[in-house]
Amino acid sequence: MTGGEPRSHRLRYYAAFQVLSPLLAVGLALLMGGAIIGGIGINPLGAYAALWKGAFGTAAGFGLGITRTIPLLFVGLSVGLALRCGLFNIGGEGQLYMGALASTALAVYLPAMPWALHFPIVLAGSFLAGGGWGAMAGWMRARFGLNEIITTIMLNYIAFWIVSYLVHGPMLDKASYYPWSPQVPESAQFPVLHEPSGIHLGIFLALAAAVVVYVFLWRTRVGFEIRATGAGSSTARFVGINVLRRTVLSMFLAGGLAGLAGTAEIHGVQLRLS
What we know:
This protein is mostly helical.
């Protein structure tokens, strides 16, 4: 047996574990759910058949599942990126609100312009707003040692009440009885790719963001420094990594991704900030 074989075996086992563990988790969840459903006198197979039909049996049901997945993908990437730097970003909700607020303001109050110009401005504004909201927590963690779990949760409430104030006051649609903003113009909306299902461009942007985050974390020097900071900030500092900058950058990028989740929801589904 050569020296490389044990390592190759370990790599194969690790790869198999990465593939099989999510499938095993889903299978166990279905078994446990089926047991609970059967325990209350309902046929589990019939219940799961209805669940499958509701999710995939109609274009509208399938589209609803996809559009609900888009913001979860963005916020999941946000949490995962911060976690690679050893940070628990519990502030996705607040960052989502700030991204949605910025993108709505840019959509509603900027002069009329073509989609090819307006839409990128909206995306960039939402990323910067969500990123700035996340960077505040990152800076407080790196500069003062404040726990980012506490600060991001507190920032969630602040973001919510800022948006609540604005949609009840300065951004209120005067033609409506409801506390929401004017409708975003078509030049700032996510194009709908399939009308019967309502699936819009956001699903491809979210998947592209996942690829970009992977390449950034695992194929760039800055990504390596972020992961090194997460593995041990003292060691990272010892080898010359600027831990403060990498911590703030990680939370900025995480916040920006969550901000895009807010934009996907407003400009792809709701069309108003509420």
